[in-house]
Amino acid sequence: GAVVSQHPSWVICKSGTSVKIECRSLDFQATTMFWYRQFPKQSLMLMATSNEGSKATYEQGVEKDKFLINHASLTLSTLTVTSAHPEDSSFYICSAREGLAYEQYFGPGTRLTVT
Amino acid sequence: QQPVQSPQAVILREGEDAVINCSSSKALYSVHWYRQKHGEAPVFLMILLKGGEQKGHDKISASFNEKKQQSSLYLTASQLSYSGTYFCGTDSGAGSYQLTFGKGTKLSVIP
Predict the structure, then answer these.
(1) What confidence tier does A49 reach under pLDDT thresholds 50, 70, 90?
(2) What is the pLDDT of residues B26-51, one digit of tens each?
(3) Taking CB atoms and an 8 Å limit, are A106 and B34 in contact across chains?
């Protein structure tokens, strides 16, 4: 149980284009989904928190117009990186939690490379 | 505020034990432990809640001292599969369920 998938696993895009990353909870209803960014050999940095049906809450320093998050259903959240630039290249990971449970389960991550 | 993990890295021979510590300057409601292998997502190990929990599964256990605002992860009789980076994530209990992760402890188990 508690499986979270992400798609795609990796993506290479040109500077200026937009990229959408999907995060799905496969066997539970994700009340809350979190989006993290991780640079090589560094920790997980929380970008935003999204609750189903409401607007995402972004961490300080994260541009909400650049990183668009949609949590339209209890099993799907999407992160769209708009007008991507090389500095947006990173490992993006989502996690999800259910109901009143505290545990967060992570997806396998998406490696974004912007050329 | 980011919790502090120690040590930053440790190398063990198979069968040896290790302790990884996680301390916070803020009061904590829960501490979550994850293991991440290179290029993969973090895998949930366990969560300890306020109340001074201790928990274990197989040869991996953890404790949470809420007074000292710290948690320790104990790995006994280490196996090659234990290699990876261990992260603690802390929750201050503000109701957001958000975790703040430490910088990680890289554990390498060698034959």
Answers:
(1) very high
(2) 888 899 999 999 888 899 999 998 87
(3) yes
Q: Which of the 8 DSSP states describes residue B16?
A: -
Q: What is the pLDDT of residue B109?
A: 97
For residue A67, the tally of other CB atoms under 10 A from its CB is 19
Q: Rounded to 5 degrees, what are φ and ψ at A68?
A: -90, 125
Of B30, B102, B104, Cβ closest to residue A102: B30
> What tokens were used for A84?
């991507």
Asked if the Cβ–Cβ distance from A93 to B41 is below 8 Å, we say yes
Give every CB contact of residue A50 below 8 A, 6+ residues apart in sequence. A32, A33, A34, A35, A56, A57, A69, A70, A71, A77
Query: Considering all CA atoms of chain A, what is the largest pairwise distance in Å, rounded to the nearest integer?
Result: 41
**Chain B contacts to A (CB-CB under 8 A):** 2, 30, 32, 34, 39-44, 47, 49, 87, 89, 91, 96-104
| Strand ranges (E), B7-57 | 9-13, 18-23, 30-36, 43-49, 54-57
